[in-house]
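Page 42, continued from yesterday. The earlier attempt failed because a stray header line got pasted into the input along with the sequence. Redoing it now with the clean sequence only.
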Amino acid sequence: MSVAAVVPPMVIITYEGTMLGAIIFTILGTLFESRLPNLTGGVYDPRIMTEGYIGVVVNGPPERLSQAETIFQSVGAEDVVREAAAVRQPA
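This time it went through. Structure tokens are written below.
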């Protein structure tokens, strides 16, 4: 007597469905945890890719952004750009 004759067909279908569900939810969970796709876009400066610049994003209350600008300029930042003037990367 073979093993296939002892296992009911519904057990095999249930197993395959469980594996398919596990794979699908693993992929969806990975995408969710990686925050992909990024539909909002973000602050982006093309010089980061073309000229090797390093971008630093500072979020904070508007009244403290001037202080942050002053700190960056005092330590030698080549350019300080406010978000409103920054180029947005297409989503």
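Notes: Residues 28 and 34 are 10 Å apart (CA to CA).
Reminder to self: strip header lines before submitting.
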